[in-house]
Amino acid sequence: MPEHETEYAAIRHVGARLGVGPETLRKWRRRAEIDTGQRPGLTSDEHAEVKRLRREVAELRRANEILRTASAFFAAELDRPTTR
Known about the structure:
3 helices, mainly alpha, 74% helix
């Protein structure tokens, strides 16, 4: 017979012994299940890669906007008549 009647009761018991809230412990368990392939979802490594790529995309979009603005500025400068 199991020590705890439900999974949540076991999580609460273990969480209390570790000094961790039950929701935190539940999330850690789910993350471990995903990372070991027992549950579908993005692994921790995949999640970190997606986060890194999103930051990189945002940085590249900012750089492209700066380049577009600079290009428009210099194009306008080239179109101006020069006075000597």
